[in-house]
Each structure stands twice: as structure tokens, then as C-alpha cells.
Predict the structure.
Amino acid sequence: MISYHSLEDRIVKNFFRKLEKPLETDPEKSLKSIYADPLVKIITSKPVKPSDQEVEVNPRSRSAKLRVIEKI
């Protein structure tokens, strides 16, 4: 996923984290939640940003951030 704005990046980051550690509610334990099996594996712990050379060639890429997950 490529995001171009910090707010977009925050949404993507939080969504990926929820997929990595999904909550599964148990009706018998009304207020307690347990983690279910992960749906994805986060490949990039930090976002990949364009290099200085890329930004020099393509100035609009300076705000781009790439995050990668792998479906399990």
C-alpha cells in the first residue's frame, strides 16, 4: 500500500496492525477479548521512503510511503 499523506499512512498502519492481531470476542467472557490467528504478516516494520535520487527525478514522490504485508 502506498500512502501520500501522514493521515493516510496512519490509517494504513493501524489497519495492518489489526489484521496482524485480530480480536476474537468470546460470548462467555462478555468483556474480555482474545487474539485470533493472524491473517497477515507485516513485511516492512517501518515504511519504505523514496531515495534522494528518486525525489530528485520525481519530486512528487517525496511524501510517498510504502508498507507491505503478506497474506497468510
Remarks:
- Residues 5 and 38 are 27 Å apart (CA to CA).
- The first helix runs from residue 6 to 20.
- The first strand starts at residue 2 and ends at 3.
